[in-house]
């Protein structure tokens, strides 16, 4: 077994709401191997984004720990790169200025990052849009820009929260195939939240299914299929049935 890059050990979290305590995550355990693509799927409101907020240190869990490369990093920021549920490009900054924001925040030389970023605009399908503003890009392009910013952060793992939500089916398909290319090219580990069973199976080495809130891990499913995956193949459909059963 390869050593896990990230271990999520017994994470629980409750929030205080207007109607009292809101238990959200209950004893979540996960393990993500280096270089792997892992998806999390679960009903709306079960606590997926909360788990990401805990992994990236924005929220402290009530119990449990986040361990990355053997180090306890619970509550620490700046360890992972995170693409939040909304693409959150700054409308007043050009695309190039948006994608290097991580360097700016961390005090790394911005000109160097820009040089590296310019070389990647072609890879991300954004050639010629370096000096454009987000409002002039399509939804898919904005998401690719947000993803490029996440890749440029150069952390050992990228957390992607519903990166393709809100895209039409065809754009979404293209983006999935394209994301796999990026993943293979940059050899980054990815933790990916989605609502879409087919998307999870098409992309992932492993899928975690969370239950209704308070979320528990309902199923850990290793997807042992060669890529590129054919969504209509009998093997793929078998995996789909397993995920559907776990989500019922
Ligand atoms: N900072 C907070 N304070 C209070 N309650 C919160 C906070 N963050 C999240 N919650 C609550 O925790 C629950 C889980 O929210 P979360 O955003 O993690 O769900 P999700 O699984 O990402 O949902 P979706 O699939 O719709 O994005 C919700 O009931 C939400 O209202
Ligand atoms: Mg969410």
Secondary structure blueprint with pairings:
Blueprint: E1 4-17, E2 20-33, E3 37-41, H1 48-55, E4 63-68, E5 71-72, E6 81-83, H2 95-99, H3 101-106, H4 110-120, H5 139-152, E7 157-161, H6 169-186, E8 189-194, H7 197-203, E9 206-210, E10 217-222, H8 234-247
Parallel strand pairs: 3-8, 3-9, 6-7, 7-8
Antiparallel strand pairs: 1-2, 1-4, 4-5, 9-10
Helix pairs in contact: 7-8
Magnesium ion binds at residues 48-49, 85, 161.
Outline:
This protein has 248 residues and is α/β, with parallel strands linked by helices.
Which labels suit this protein?
4-stranded antiparallel sheet, binds magnesium ion, alpha/beta, Rossmann fold, 248 residues, 6-stranded mixed sheet, 8 helices, 2 domains, binds adenosine-5'-triphosphate, 33% helix
Structure description:
The protein is α/β, with parallel strands linked by helices. It has 2 domains: about 1-80 and about 155-248, Rossmann fold, CATH 3.40.50; about 85-155, no CATH class. Helix content is about 35%, strand content about 25%. It contains 8 helices and 10 strands. A 6-stranded mixed beta sheet has the order 6-7-8-3-9-10, with helices on both faces. A 4-stranded antiparallel beta sheet has the order 2-1-4-5, covered by helices on one side. A hairpin with a 6-residue loop joins strand 9 and strand 10. The model has no long low-confidence stretch (mean pLDDT about 95). Magnesium ion binds near residues 49 and 161.
């Amino acid at each position: 077994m390869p050593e896990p890059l990230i271990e999520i050990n017994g994470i629980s979290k409750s929030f205080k709401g207007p109607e009292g305590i809101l238990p959200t995550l209950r004893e979540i355990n996960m393990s993500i191997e280096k270089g792997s693509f892992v998806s999390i799927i679960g009903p709306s409101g079960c606590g997926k984004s909360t788990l990401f907020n805990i992994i990236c240190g924005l929220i402290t869990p009530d119990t449990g720990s986040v361990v990355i490369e053997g180090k306890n990093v619970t509550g620490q920021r700046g360890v992972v790169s995170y693409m939040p549920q909304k693409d959150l490009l700054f409308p007043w900054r050009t695309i190039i200025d948006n994608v290097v924001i991580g360097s700016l925040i961390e005090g790394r030389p911005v000109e160097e990052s820009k040089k590296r970023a310019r070389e990647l605009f072609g890879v991300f399908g954004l050639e010629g849009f370096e000096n454009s503003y987000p409002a002039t890009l399509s939804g898919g392009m904005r998401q690719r820009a947000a993803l490029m910013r996440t890749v440029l952060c150069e952390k050992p793992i990228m957390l992607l929260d519903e990166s393709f939500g809100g895209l039409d089916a065809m754009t979404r398909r293209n983006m999935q195939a394209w994301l796999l290319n990026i993943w293979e090219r940059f050899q980054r580990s990815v933790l990916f939240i989605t609502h879409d069973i087919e998307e999870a199976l098409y992309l992932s080495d492993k899928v975690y299914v969370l239950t209704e809130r308070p979320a528990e891990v309902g199923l850990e499913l290793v997807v042992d299929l060669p890529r590129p995956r054919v969504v209509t193949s009998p093997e793929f459909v078998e995996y789909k049935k397993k995920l559907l059963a776990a989500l019922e």
